[in-house]
Amino acid sequence: MISKNQMKLIRSLELKKNRKRENLFVAEGPKVVGDLLRGGYLPHSIFSTGQQIEAGGRRYEVQNVTEDELRKISFLQHPQEVLAVLEMPGQGRDVARRYDSELVLALDGVQDPGNMGTIIRIADWFGIDTIYCSQDSADVYNPKVVQATMGSLAHVQIEYGNLEELIRQAQCPVYGTLLDGENIYEQTLTKNGIIVMGNEGNGISPAIRKLITHRLLIPNYHQDSETAESLNVAIATAITCAEFRRR
Questions:
Q1: What is the spatial distance between Cα 148 and Cα 39, in angstroms, rounded to a whole number?
Q2: Using CA atoms, how far apart are residues 49 and 62, in angstroms rounded to an integer?
Q3: 231, 239 in Cβ contact below 8 A?
């Protein structure tokens, strides 16, 4: 049986300030929880309606709860048998040193949790293991972000900081998708550098836009008629990453 204090703690983790204070976040579902445990995340507590949790050759202790109790603590419309409270890992890896040999994503004010989680999943799929985020980007440990990653949070390093300063210091190509850019399908793309993706409504901020060395455009194919004003940032990220990896 879950206690009132446990329930209160879990529900409090919906808010960023509480996650930061407790250094904890929530993940749900056997796959997401299992992937995070295999990826090295440490459990604070795990609640299950009966399913045993095994990851990385280790069986984890769980607290059994009823389906009704799981619904009360779950952030999902349809709870998925397992809910884990996990510890946040430390940050501080020198991301800038990775630009010389790898592609890195930089998110400039991506604020929708669904987009953030989907972009992390996209990065994982295309072998991009570092994402650097501006401070006003969505919190990666928001429950909606965690679920949208579908476990890819275990495979991608996320860092928050001063994006403008980071890009200024980086001696590498800096790519950005802009409406006044050059057709991405006709450009020379490198195997290393920074790919900047901007805010859902405003795109890349003016300060960051000035630092872009390679301006890219994903062209539409209804140029003589009305079409969508722009692409969703997660879809644009997928197209951009796919084109870099295709070369």
A1: 17
A2: 9
A3: yes
The tokens of 106 are what? Answer: 């930089």
What does each of the 247 residues of the chain score in pLDDT, given as a tens digit? 899 999 999 999 999 999 999 999 999 999 999 999 999 999 999 999 987 888 888 889 999 999 999 999 999 999 999 999 999 987 655 555 566 679 999 999 999 999 999 999 999 999 999 999 999 999 999 999 999 999 999 999 999 999 999 999 888 999 999 989 999 999 999 999 999 999 999 999 999 999 999 999 999 887 666 777 779 999 999 999 999 999 7
Side chain identity at 81, as an amino acid letter?
E
Six-digit token pair at 94?
Answer: 């020198």
Q: What is d(CA 32, CA 80) in angstroms, rounded to the nearest whole number?
A: 10
DSSP string, 172-212: S-EEEEEEEEEEGGGS---SSEEEEEEBTTTBS-HHHHTT-
Q: Which amino acid does the sequence have at 147?
A: Q
Q: How many residues does the chain have?
A: 247
The 8-class DSSP code of residue 185 comes to G
Cβ–Cβ under 8 Å, residues 35 and 151 = yes
Q: What is the pTM of this model?
A: 0.92
Query: DSSP character for 203?
Result: B
Helix 233-246 and helix 113-125: axis angle, to 10°?
10
Query: Do residues 111 and 138 lie in contact, with contact meaning Cβ atoms separated by under 8 Å?
Result: yes
